[in-house]
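Lecture 7 notes: from sequence to structure.

We start with a single chain of 201 residues. Read the sequence below before looking at the structure.
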Amino acid sequence: MNVGEPREVTWLGKTVMTGIFKDPVGSPVMLRTMNLDGDAQADLSVHGGAAKAVYAYPEEHYGFWRGEFPGMELPPGMFGENFTTTGLTEETVHAGDRFRMGEAEVIVTQPRLPCFKLGIKFRRNDIIRRFLQSGRTGFYMAVLRGGMVGAGDSVELLSADPQSVSIAELVRLHLPGTIDPDLLRRARKVEALPESWKKSP
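Now the structure, written as tokens:
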């Protein structure tokens, strides 16, 4: 579990405020409607809010990125995630799936689309394109019921969305040139999916 407050950094000659820098936290903290205690987003127009209260990224992907960037240190939280998870991937997690994490209950809302601030964290702009093309995006969750959560807590599936639109499918739907009317029809029926995702790219 990783949290962090926004900080000022210099990138390409400009001062930028970003909340992408997260550090592991050992003791349980409260998960609330908008985020974890001790965590915040710098630009709420594109980050945060109820539909993006917390961000999860599969630990399984770290091996892939270590192969892509040998020699680069990639600690948990490198992608700005709040939860570095095990056993949850874009292929198996669906928008609208509900989970129990510690004392809290959450619902998956959408994939993460990278912005230039991921480039700040990696100190390279090509990570944005490579991140999206890899399909290893992780996913955002909204909080249905707040509660204490901590590193090592189990993640229990409470209910699966009936449309079964995976995070991986949503990423592919977003890519230019992808036309899948059946997938778009199913996606539009997912109540938890934000309206911006229900429109044809």
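The helical segments are 61-68, 116-122, 126-134, 167-174, 181-187. Keep this in mind for problem set 3.
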